[in-house]
Amino acid sequence: MLDILFELVQSWSVKNEGIYTIDEIKEWYYYLNNSLRVNISFTEYEADSEWAYNSDTDRIERRSGSFFSIAGLINSQEQVEQPVILQQEIGYLGMITQMQNGVLHFLIQAKIEPGNVNKVQLSPTIQATHSNFTKVHKGAAPKYLEYFLEAGKHKIIFDQIQSEQSSRFLGKRNRNIVIYVDESVEIELYDNYRWVTLGQIKELMKIDNIVNMDTRTVISCIPFSTLEKDENINYLSQFSDKILGRSVLYSDFRPYEIAKMYHYINNYKMFHLEHSKVCGLSELPNWYWDGSMFVSDKYKNFRVIFCDVEIEKREVLKWQQPLFQASGNALFALAYRISDGIMEFLVQCKPESGCFDQIELAPTWQLEANERKNLEKNNFGKILLKKIEKGIDIRNHVLLSEEGGRFYHEQNENIIFELNSGEVKQAPGSSEGYFWLTYNELNTSMLYNNVLNIQLRNLLSILSDSNG
Fold it and tell me: Fewer Cβ neighbours under 10 Å: the N or C end of the chain?
């Protein structure tokens, strides 16, 4: 009988013995990136184009009214004033897994998005908005949709609704789902799809901007800590890094630590009344139109631009749409310590104006490009700067992209780093909303929605069985 946990950890350990070697996957990926023709250019929006500013609604929206729109958001308590993406529908971010040649493989696709910094990135099996899979735009249904609509016919490894970027969206969430399809079911392999192992995905995550944000969030949700274990199986044997293996598979779940964390979160929700207000774009006093760009001289994290998009081999070959353009690379950094041979991660309870439930767990540091200077303002931040400068105690350090369907060339610096016992003493504590949690506690929390934000989930996804 299939032991899904063993197959998952074994797949994590396999980097070159899958259907394809890691070099063959890279060669396929780079070939697609170099051969596909994609043209993206800034443009002036036209009043009669598909996307434009609508003076009646005071929003940027599609003429049909579908898909998404861009309005204003003001939160006086958090001192936030910005455009925000409104897209309340819940989309699919789904991964099919299946045994191939005796090893569990994941079905990924090479997907082009208009805002991608490098044309193609590796996406989950399905990455589709509600409008996509209900065919609002009269296009074809996404490939493999039927496996997720009828997921009950297969083994569901994980299925939960998780949040998106709360600094750009208002209450946006997507359904993260991983299913196992029995090998007796023949799955047709379409163009631009490949079967890869989990270990190969982890290796590709070490390279800048290859694995997209949606793949990362789905991978982060795999419930390693809670899947049933067979005492006769040595799961740890599949890990070369035994500290990581013990942390992923056997770390404690401490109810009192979780209760302490929820006490902080629930106090915030109870005593900080919701102050976010959706408004028209013209009601944002510090934002203005600069040609076809919507910008601010005070709030400089991003601006809204319009782009002409031309991508070959798509149902719609040419179109115009708005995208959010960040002012630079944000920094997401997750600190950990080793306690009794187990990794514990320092996370913060972070409110954001667009958050569906006001506040979620976030990485140790989550800084927009314009906020990175905050690291220099306290001794704890200087610890990270010193480690980056000297290249010490850094487990992962990679540049990864945000979702290219809404964001233009937005890349973030992702770092996982270790603190020694002396440095741990300088870390902020629970009174400031910071908590040391095990992998089990974080992994189990993802069984529920709106607990870990997407930045923290993405960082957990890049944990690999070797540093990089």
Answer: N
How do 69-75 and 59-62 pair as beta strands?
A: antiparallel
pLDDT at residue 67, rounded to an integer: 82
- Predicted model pTM: 0.96
Write the single-letter amino acid at 358. Q
Tell me how many degrees the CA angle 325-331-334 measures, rounded to the nearest 5: 145
Is residue 221 within 8 A of residue 176, CB to CB? The reply is yes
104-120 pLDDT, tens digit per residue, is 999 999 999 999 999 99
Q: Which two tokens stand for residue 282?
A: 């013209």
What is the predicted pLDDT for the residue at 444? 98
Can you give the residue ranges of every domain in the chain? 4-38+88-237, 42-82+280-326, 255-274+329-461
What pLDDT is recorded for position 137?
57
In the prediction, which pLDDT does 65 show?
74
The pLDDT value recorded for residue 467 is 58
What's the CA gap between 336 and 438, in Å, rounded?
A: 9
Whole-angstrom Cα distance, residue 349 to residue 361? Answer: 5
How far, in Å, CA of 175 to CA of 362, rounded?
A: 19
Instruction: Give tens-digit pLDDT for 422-467.
Output: 999 999 999 999 999 999 999 999 999 999 999 999 999 999 997 5
Q: Give SS3 for 125.
A: coil
Tell whether domain 4-38+88-237 is in CATH 3.40.50.261. Answer: no
Q: What is the DSSP code string of 417-461?
A: EE--HHHHTTS--GGGTEEEEEHHHHHHHTTSSSSB-HHHHHHHH
- Cβ neighbours around 48 below 10 Å, total: 7
Q: Which CATH architecture has domain 255-274+329-461?
A: Alpha-Beta Complex (3.90)
- Hey, is 210 helix, strand or coil? coil
- Which residue stretches of 221-354 are H helix? 242-250, 255-271
Residue 300 structure tokens? 């400089």
Q: Are 267 and 40 in contact (CB under 8 A)?
A: no
CA atoms within a 13 Å half-sphere pointing along the CA-CB vector of 151:
20
